[in-house]
Amino acid sequence: MKTSHRAAALLLSAGLLLTGCSSLTDTPTAEGYHGPTLPARPGVTRDAWQEGPAKPVQHKPYPYDISTHCGVKWVEFGGRWWVLDTVFPGVEQVKGKRPSPYTQWLSGYMTLIGPDTANFDAAGMPTLQFVPAKKNPPGCE
Predict the structure, then answer these.
(1) Burial 105-131 (b: 16+ CB within 10 A, else e)
(2) In this structure, are residues 118 and 129 in contact, taking their beta carbons and an 8 Å threshold?
(3) How far apart are alpha carbons 19 and 26 in whole angstroms?
(4) What is the pTM for the complete model shown?
(5) Is residue 135 classed as helix, strand or coil in its secondary structure?
(6) CA 83 to chain CA centroid, nearest Å
(7) What is the pLDDT of residues 85-107, one digit of tens each?
(8) How many angstroms separate the Cα of 66 from the Cα of each of 40, 69, 70, 110?
(9) C-alpha angle 71/57/113, rounded to 5°?
(10) Can you give the pLDDT at residue 95?
């Protein structure tokens, strides 16, 4: 009898856990969607360039600007180089209009997710996830 109660409790707990996890969605019209959470940042100027702190705190979004002249594969954040690992289309984290495709600067937010993961979010764009680079980036032509 005790075993069946334990099994039932375990199955009920697992079902509740799975139900709770599945309530988040990346569809703006679906239940569970919370929408963008950060305001769009205005276009960057050289005197207002943002690179985040030398020692970022996990899960805190920092204003961050990326030069797109050589692409967005490499970024320097928190005192080290990072390389683009994954692009996550779906839920937009930043409210506002997508930046002009004719600019060489991308203004958004960089968030340290864990010791070896950082996410960049900008208005109208998917999340760009970076991991620590094993080497310094090559030069840009």
Answers:
(1) bbbbbbbbeeeebbbbbbbebbbbbbe
(2) yes
(3) 16
(4) 0.69
(5) coil
(6) 14
(7) 999 887 667 877 777 666 778 88
(8) 14, 9, 10, 10
(9) 55
(10) 77
